[in-house]
C-alpha cells in the first residue's frame, strides 16, 4: 500500500482557498469534507484533497453531509435517488473498513457545518464546487460564521474536468469561445485519479448509526407528488454499470452510433443515460472521459461527439452559471436576445396555455404532449425533445419571462437530473438564445431559433415517438398502481 507522501497532490488549480487560517503552526484539528455536489467515494478530488491534508498533518478526517429540509423543490424522485445513493456510499465505507466516518446533518448547512467544525475542533473544511447561487451563498455565510482563526476553508472543483475558474476567467459567449480554452488544459487536468489512500488516523469518537430507511420513507412521503423512477438505479456502482457495464454499458455496448442516434428521440438508448449520475456526482465526468478515451481508436467520431457534450457543453453550462448571476432569468440573456424577445413579447399567440394545462399535457400538439408525459412519468426526456419542449412553451405563454419561469419549474420538478446548471442553460438556450446566435426574425420568437412540428417530422418518426411514450407511460402507470396495491395490502397485514 502506498503512503500519503506518494499521493500525487491534487492539482493546485482545482483548489480555491475561501478562508485562510491565521495560525501558522501545523494544524492539530481534524479535516472535514462537506460533501454536496460530488456524492461519491471514488474519483473525487475533494475527498482526495481532504484525506491528503489530513495525512500530511497526522489528523483524522470525516465526511459531513447536510440534508436540507427543502432544496429548490426537490421531490421523492430526486431525493429518493440521492438518499439511496448515499445509503450505498455509507455502506461502502463500512464494508471496506474505510476509516472515514460519515456524519449526516439535517436542516440548514449554514448552521450544522460551522457547529460541527466547532464541536470537533477542525482545522480545515473542504467543500466541493457548485456554481448555483444558493450553494455559493451558504459558503459565504459559513466563511463568516466560522470565527475560529485556526480554520481554513478550501473549495475543490471535483465536478468539472477543467476547473471552472481555470477554463476561463470570464463569461463565455458559446461553445466556440470556450472549446479551445478547455482543450488546451486537458493534458494538465484530464489525468488518472490516484487511489484513495486510507486515512492514517482514526476518528476519535464513535458515530451514531443513520436510519436511512426512515429518512427515505420521509422524503418519499413528503415528495409523493413526483414519485421515484423504477428504471434508474442509484449509486456509484450503478453509474459505473451505465458507463462501462458488460450488459448494457454505454461505452461497452451502445457507443457506436452515438453521433447519429443521439438526435433521434426514438432511440433513447443511443444516449449515455449518465445525466442522473453526473448530476448527483455519483459518477465523475473525468472518469467518463478517461474511459471514453480508451475506446477512441475504435469509435473516434462517437467518442469525439460524446466528449464535446460531456466536457465542452457541460462545462460551458457551469461557466454560464458561475459568471452570470442572472443565469435563470431574462436578465441573463445577451442584449440582442433580450431586445428581440421584448420586441415580440406582445405578438399574438395562436394558443396560450395555463401552467395547469401544460403540466397536464393538455395542448393541441400531440408531439409536445408526448414529451411532457415522458417528463412527468419517465423523468428523463430525450435531449432533442427537451429543446422542442422548451421552445413551444415560449410560443404558448404570455411572454418570455413567464415561459422561462415555467420551463424551469417543470424541468426541475420532474427531471431526475433537474436543478442542474445544464438545465438552467438548456432553458436559457431554448428560450433566450444563450450560447446560440440570432436567426431569421419571426413572430413571437423574434430572432431566437425556432423549432416546429413539421421540422421534427422531417427529422424523425414523430408518430413512432408518440406511440413509444404512450407505451412507457402505460407501463409506469401500471407499476404505480401495483405499488399502491402492494402498499395497501402490506398496511392491512400490519
Ligand atoms: C430545455 C432543456 C433542459 C435541459 N435540462 C437538463 C437538466 O435538467 N439536467 C441536465 O443534466 N441536462 C439538461 N439538459 C441538457 C441535456 O439535454 C441532457 O444533459 C441530456 O439529455 C442528458 O441525457 P444523457 O446523459 O443521456 O445525454 P448524453 O447525450 O449521453 O450526454 C452525456 C452528458 O453530456 C452532457 N450534455 C449533453 N447534452 C448537453 C447539453 N445540451 N448541455 C450541457 N450538457 C450536455 C450531460 O452532462 C450529459 O449527461 C437540458 C437541455 C435542454 C434543451
Automatic annotation (TrEMBL):
Gene3D superfamilies, sorted: 1.25.40.80, DNA Cyclobutane Dipyrimidine Photolyase, subunit A, domain 3, HUPs
Domain Photolyase/cryptochrome alpha/beta: 29-164
GO molecular function: deoxyribodipyrimidine photo-lyase activity; DNA binding
Family membership noted in the UniProt record: Belongs to the DNA photolyase class-2 family.
Transmembrane regions listed in the UniProt entry: none
Cross-referenced InterPro entries: Crypto/Photolyase_FAD-like_sf, Crypto/Photolyase_N_sf, DNA_photolyase_2, DNA_photolyase_2_CS, DNA_photolyase_N, Photolyase_Class-2, Rossmann-like_a/b/a_fold
GO biological process: DNA repair; UV protection
The protein, known as: Deoxyribodipyrimidine photo-lyase
Cofactor dependence: FAD
Reactions catalysed: cyclobutadipyrimidine (in DNA) = 2 pyrimidine residues (in DNA)
Entry annotated with the keyword Transmembrane: no
Pfam name, any one: DNA_photolyase
Tagged with keyword Cytoplasm: no
Amino acid at each position: 500500500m502506498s503512503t500519503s507522501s506518494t499521493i500525487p497532490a491534487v492539482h493546485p488549480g482545482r483548489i480555491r482557498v475561501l478562508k485562510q487560517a491565521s495560525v501558522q503552526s501545523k494544524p492539530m484539528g481534524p479535516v472535514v469534507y462537506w460533501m454536496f455536489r460530488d456524492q461519491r467515494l471514488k474519483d473525487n478530488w475533494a475527498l482526495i484533497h481532504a484525506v491528503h491534508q489530513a495525512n500530511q498533518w497526522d489528523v483524522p478526517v470525516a465526511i459531513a453531509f447536510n440534508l436540507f429540509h427543502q432544496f429548490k423543490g426537490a421531490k421523492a424522485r430526486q431525493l429518493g435517488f440521492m438518499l439511496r445513493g448515499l445509503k450505498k456510499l455509507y455502506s461502502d465505507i463500512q464494508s471496506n473498513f474505510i476509516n472515514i466516518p460519515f456524519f449526516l446533518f439535517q436542516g440548514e448547512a449554514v448552521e450544522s457545518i460551522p457547529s460541527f467544525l466547532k464541536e470537533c475542533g477542525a482545522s480545515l473544511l473542504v467543500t466541493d464546487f457548485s456554481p448555483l447561487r444558493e450553494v455559493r451563498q451558504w459558503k459565504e455565510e459559513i466563511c463568516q460564521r466560522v470565527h475560529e482563526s485556526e480554520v481554513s476553508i478550501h473549495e475543490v472543483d471535483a465536478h468539472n474536468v477543467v476547473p471552472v475558474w481555470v477554463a476561463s476567467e470570464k463569461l463565455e459567449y458559446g461553445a466556440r469561445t470556450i472549446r479551445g480554452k478547455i482543450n488546451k488544459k486537458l493534458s494538465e487536468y484530464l489525468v488518472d485519479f490516484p487511489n484513495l489512500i486510507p486515512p492514517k488516523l482514526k476518528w476519535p469518537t464513535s458515530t451514531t448509526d443513520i436510519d436511512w430507511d426512515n429518512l427515505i420513507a420521509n422524503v418519499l412521503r413528503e415528495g409523493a407528488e413526483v414519485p421515484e423512477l423504477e428504471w434508474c438505479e442509484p449509486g456509484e456502482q450503478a453509474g459505473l454499470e451505465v458507463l462501462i457495464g458488460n450488459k448494457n454499458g454505454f461505452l461497452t455496448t451502445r457507443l457506436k452510433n452515438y453521433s447519429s442516434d443521439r438526435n433521434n428521440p426514438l432511440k433513447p438508448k443511443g444516449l449515455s443515460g449518465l445525466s442522473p449520475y453526473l448530476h448527483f456526482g455519483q459518477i465523475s465526468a473525468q472518469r467518463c472521459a478517461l474511459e471514453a478515451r480508451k475506446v477512441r481508436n475504435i469509435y473516434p467520431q462517437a467518442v469525439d461527439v460524446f466528449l464535446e457534450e460531456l466536457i465542452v457543453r457541460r462545462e460551458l453550462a457551469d461557466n454560464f452559471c458561475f459568471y452570470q448571476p442572472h443565469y435563470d432569468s431574462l436578465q441573463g440573456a445577451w442584449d440582442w436576445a433580450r431586445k428581440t424577445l421584448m420586441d415580440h413579447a406582445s405578438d399574438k399567440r395562436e394558443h396560450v396555455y395555463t401552467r395547469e394545462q401544460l403540466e397536464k399535457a393538455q395542448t393541441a400538439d400531440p408531439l409536445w404532449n408526448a414529451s411532457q408525459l415522458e417528463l412527468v412519468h419517465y423523468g428523463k426526456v430525450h435531449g432533442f425533445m427537451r429543446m422542442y419542449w422548451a421552445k413551444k412553451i415560449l410560443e404558448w405563454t404570455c411572454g418570455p419571462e413567464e415561459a422561462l419561469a415555467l420551463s424551469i419549474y417543470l424541468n426541475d420538478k420532474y427531471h431526475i437530473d433537474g436543478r442542474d446548471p445544464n438545465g438552467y442553460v438548456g432553458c436559457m438556450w431554448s428560450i433566450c438564445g444563450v450560447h446560440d446566435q440570432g436567426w431569421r426574425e419571426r413572430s413571437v420568437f423574434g430572432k431566437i431559433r425556432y423549432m416546429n412540428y413539421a421540422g421534427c417530422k422531417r427529422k424523425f418518426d414523430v408518430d413512432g415517438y408518440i406511440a413509444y411514450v404512450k407505451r412507457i407511460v402505460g407501463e409506469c402507470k401500471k407499476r404505480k398502481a401495483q405499488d399502491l396495491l402492494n402498499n395497501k395490502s402490506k398496511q392491512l397485514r400490519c
